[in-house]
Hints:
Layout: E1 15-20, H1 25-34, E2 40-46, H2 49-58, E3 65-70, H3 77-84, E4 88-91, H4 105-112, E5 116-119, H5 124-128, H6 134-140, E6 143-146, H7 150-162, E7 166-177, H8 186-195, E8 200-204, E9 207-211, E10 217-220, E11 233-237, H9 242-249, E12 255-260, H10 265-279, H11 290-299, E13 306-317, E14 322-332, H12 342-352, E15 360-363, H13 370-377, E16 382-388, H14 396-401, H15 410-415, E17 421-432, H16 436-445, E18 451-463, E19 466-473, E20 476-484, E21 493-497, E22 500-509, E23 512-522, E24 525-527, E25 534-542, E26 545-554, E27 558-569, H17 570-574
Amino acid sequence: xxxxxxxxxxxxxxLTILVLGGYGTFGARIVALLxxxxxxxxxxxxxxxxxxxxxxxxxxxxxxxxxxxxxxRDGDVEAKLASLRPDILVDAxxxxxxxxxxxxxxxxxxxxxxxxxxxxxxxLQFVAAIRTFDEEALSAGCFVLSGVSSFPVLTAAVTRRxxxxxxxxxxxxGGIAPSPYAGIGExxxxxxxxxxxxxxxxxxxxxxxxxxxxLEHMRFTIAPPxxxxxxxxxxxxxxxxxxxxxxKLWPEANTIWMGAGPVPEILHRALIAFAWLVRLRILRxxxxxxxxxxxxxxxxxxxxxxxxMFVEVEGENASGKKICRSWQLLAxxxxxxxxxSMAVEAVVKAIQHGDAPKAGARVAVRDIELxxxxxxxxxxxxxxxxRDENGxxxxxxxxxxxxxxxDLPSQIREMHRGDAFSRAQGRxxxxxxxxxxxxLCAALIGFPEAGEDTAVTVEFEAKHGAERWTRRFDQMAxxxxxxxxxxxxxxxxxxxxxxxxxxxxxxxxxxxxRLVLRRWxxxxxxxxxxxxxxxxxxxxxxxxxxxxxVEIGHVLTGLIVRYRGWLVLSRDVLSGEDLHAPKAELxxx
Length: 589
């Protein structure tokens, strides 16, 4: 019996899910996401029954029922489905760009046995052609969803959220920045090696044109408001379904571009160099390098164990105002690699809640919304936020913090209100390092001498988007200039002390604003972070009063200076604040 387009497959809580490639990189993550649900039966399938058994035996904490089976996609898939009778087959194997003469063998078998189908395909052509099976899937009464991964499902959901109030979308850009410890699978490497330097179609400047994966670049700093950002990444164009799928969803968009920003950057640039050999026709492809690329990605890695993603949209609202905003995601440690598999988890939960996808074959760009992802993010170390890039006339700190500005205590917001001139007064305790080198460093910058209950005055002068801070401790004064970073210091607060510039992240902790050193330079020359000073600075509120704590040291000198105390704006002093009131004890952070 056929199913009309508006009908949906029967909702059910008890599901049997066959994961093809279930012990591979992405398949294992799908199992990890689903195995805590006792209503599920997970069939872990692959070419090796022994590997499937070992994988299932190792999942000692699984609550779902795990069954290992051998299943070769080049074998009699339909007969295997007839015996196993799964509700859903998830193809997590790949590479989808290299499925040979019968790339849709598994899709056809699922339709023939009326089994719902999902895949994590990232191959542009493979995903785009899935719609040719729409009538067959409708007749069978099952759904066939392709590209059920971050590219293009999450990017499409985010773009809908970002553009909900726009009359027109002009530009969509996005990128994924994996942790160097993410464990990229060999099939992913095969896919990258296969398309590196080869021509692909994308929309640019309002027309379809040819792009070359890995040979087009942009830099971006992923920084959800109030969070510690990733270091600035180099993103290179990748051949993903978004380049076509998002064009169909937003046909008025002039430019659609998607990239990846792997690290270490030196390895990324080496891959770019090899891609140029393909572009220049010195090599036919980099496919022969895939095993080596996989080995290197597994064994040569360093940097932060954090990853991220961004989607940026430019357009106009109904009144014709130009709008630019971006959604940004940070994932700590091992939570980031799970995100590409979360779309499958979202579909499974939707079915269990009675909201199964409609029958038919299509790219899954309309089947999952961002709120479904957010429900899955909530239980993990995943932070997201939106940055509205309009508002350059705002005070410096507000311009960098964006929406996180409103989460600051009012006393901290007042201290950074960005008036043309303001003055704050208070008391401070200053400690100085005892080594010769620490004293020399402190003298060069002009840090105050040690003292207890020292009178302190800070004058703020705001001009042309920057601020000059002049700090006076009794009779000693030193000043710095603060401004919004650009380039590799984008989304950071830069502070200049003579030839030294420190780029600081503004990070919100409950009730506090922390300033975290991310980059530094001397006479404009960037220097390694490990060679820089050790800085601990925060602003907080105690007893209703603005408090500050700054500690600067270096591995070679030990403590250079530590000063802590409180401030009130001069208008508060004039209205009765007592500068000699007992100060609250501040913890040494």
